[in-house]
Amino acid sequence: MDYSPALMTDMYEYTMLDATLQDGTADRTCVFEVFTRHLPEGRRYGVVAGTGRILDYLKDFHLSDYDLKFLRDRHIVSPQTIQWLENFEFSGSIRGYREGEMFFPNSPILQVEGTFGECTLLETLVLSVLNYDSAVASAASRMTSAANGRPCMDMGGRRTNEWSAVAAARASMIGGFQGTANLLAAKEYDLPAIGTAAHCFTLVHDSERQAFESQVAALGKNTALLLDTYDVEQAVKTAVEVAGPDLGGVRIDSGDLAALAQRVRNQLDALGATQAKITVTNDLDEYAIASLQTAPVDSYGVGTQLVTGSGAPTCSMVYKLVEREGADGTMMPVAKKSTNKANIPGRKLAYRSFEYNLADCEHVIAGNRSQLDAYQPEEGWKDLLVDFVDHGEIDDTFRGHDAIMDAQNHHAEALAELPITAQSLMRGDPVIPTEVTLL
Q1: Which range of residues forms the domain containing residue 61?
Q2: CA distance 166 to 182
Q3: Which residue, 219, 276, 315, 434, shows the most beta carbons closer than 10 Å to its own?
Q4: pLDDT, tens digit, for every residue of 211-248?
Q5: At a CB cut-off of 8 Å and minimum separation 6, what does 83 contact?
């Protein structure tokens, strides 16, 4: 599908651009900020994901002649705005929390600075990417914490939109997953691909033995054979007879997973397949994974609950104007005062403080540029903001496979810096408070 990310947006981004180009405010320098007012109910932290995808989209954030014709034919913008858009490229700057970083209420996750015209066009795309990807990464983080070192694999492609399946695979890796069943995600981001056979593979053969023989012949003894199409105990016996003691693994996709895993492990060991791994699937979430901690399970395949954020499919992030150039050319903080939707004016700095090597507070400092330039954080505070785009120049170190793996490592380090209650699955408040200082 050939499309422009510049049209992955709401119509009012373009109508606002059109009006401000006509009244002269489109060229005013502005600072927009992405943040969330609250975490999903009961969650202790969130995980940032999606920034690399935003940078990928930014590379191609242009309108083709066909796109411009659509805007013209629909009378969405004026001819003057069509002309302005013909050679549009984002020339502003973007900074924020790196992927894999933890975020909390009022964390300035992303800051976009440029003219009003160019910044407003990014709003919907930025929010759609960050809200979904961060929701998936946050769920993945909870799942990998519950797995306690056992690998988790993404199998959620059939439970969501075909494009979000690719995004979810990428975000799950940032949250600590080790592979994906989605081949497009594996190809685009150079991720480990996983998968062997479904129940239909067994059913299409005249017997389970023939299915296992076919799979081993095609994929080798290291493959994982699916046990629960018929009778699990008989399937284990058949699997070892077909593949021998060098059988690589088995998968269980139904029933009481803990009890079945124990019986299967004992049976495999008794038959000599002591090195065969056990993978469990079947609509797992972090709670189900935690309940399997004492079971002899080697890895988890997670689908529906991963790609839906395990009950929190969005992070409720918003994109708000916090500073803008006035008529006299000076920058001034601005903010909404709407009931329950007010935001903190001014551009931001963000730090995390520590006590005894554990994070104890998120510090958000708001003010104008000169105030923030002069601000001196306390000794030992960690600066949370990095530069992604500098006056239109994208830092490519935050894109591609290596950036995903760096984000995965950073996530593990950042999670280890939080108090251990962050890994609790019990409902609770954010694990550390956010302290906002207005200069």
Answers
A1: 5-136+316-342+384-419
A2: 7
A3: 315
A4: 999 999 999 999 999 999 999 999 999 999 999 999 99
A5: none
